[in-house]
Design a protein that fits this description.
Elements (H helix, E strand, L loop, with lengths): L3 E4 L2 E8 L3 E8 L4 E10 L2 H4 L2 E4 L5 H25 L5
Antiparallel strand pairs: 1-2, 1-5, 2-3, 3-4
């Protein structure tokens, strides 16, 4: 619970999980805020329609993942510049 996912084109945070269904608190990605909608899905939908897990970059783990991704990109850029200057790897 609390994970941000996208199911059938709806993005939201999981607020309830049961034996037969789960609920998402809908999040408007473009406006960066929650809507007043709660979407309810059958658990069987997850097997029929692809569900995507999304990182929350406002959480501590999301910030760590974003920092690691930025650090990795910086290292790749540095490696490309080094190779471009005649170095080998």
């Amino acid at each position: 619970m609390g994970d941000r996912v996208q199911v059938s084109g709806i993005t939201g945070d999981v607020i309830n999980m049961g034996l037969l269904q789960f609920q998402l608190r809908e999040f408007d990605v473009e406006e960066g805020r929650f809507t007043d909608h709660v979407a309810t899905f059958s658990n069987s939908l997850v097997f029929l329609s692809p569900a995507t897990g999304l990182l929350k970059f406002n959480s501590a783990s999301g910030k760590a993942a974003k920092a690691a991704a930025n650090d990795n990109a910086t290292r790749q850029d540095a490696g490309e510049k080094w190779r471009g200057a005649g170095g080998q790897r």
